[in-house]
Specification:
- The protein is built from two helices and 13 strands; from the N terminus they run βββαββββββββββα.
- The protein is of the alpha+beta class.
- Strands 1, 2, 3, 4, 9, 10, 11, 12 and 13 form a nine-stranded antiparallel β-sheet that branches. It has a two-stranded antiparallel sheet with strand order 5-8. It has a two-stranded antiparallel sheet with strand order 6-7.
- The longest helix has 19 residues.
- 36% of the residues are buried.
Amino acid sequence: MGDNAAVDRVELAVVDVPIASLEPETTPAVSVHVNGRPLEAIWADACGDEATPIWVGDTLLGSKFVDGAHVGGELIWRVGVDLRNAGWFDAVDGGRVGVLTCACGGFACGGAAARVEATRDTVTWSEFHRMNGRGPVPVGPFTFDRREYEREIDALERAVRAVRDV
C-alpha cells in the first residue's frame, strides 16, 4: 500500500428516522457511523448543533422524484462523483457533500457537509462545515481504507436502490 494513513472505520446503513414535523412518520435515511459512533453524535459534541442522518433521496446526486420513488442519480459519497452539475436542490455546498441534515430534512436550517477526497489507498472526509456556507466545525478529518470504504458504498448503494424500488 502506498499511503498508510487509514485509521478510521466507516459504517453506512439505511435506517428509518422520524420526520420532525410529521412524527410519528418516518423516512428512510443513511446512518453514518465513524469508529462505531454515530456521525450526528460526533457533530453535536463538536458544535452543539442537532442533526440527523441524511434522507435517502438526498444521497443521490441528480435523482428525480417520479411516482413516489427517486430515480437515477449517483451516490454523493462515491469517489469521483462529478459535483459540477449539482442543482440547487442537491446536497452539495462549496464542493462539499451533505453528510447530515436537519431533523426536518432540509439543509437550509441545519446539517453538515464534508469534502470527500481519495488517493489510491484512502478516502478522507474533511473540512466539515455547516450547510450553506455557515462556517467550519472542528470534526475530522476521517481517513478510511479505500477498499473498505468502497465496499461500504457498494453495499449502501444496493440498500438505497432497494428502498427506492419499494
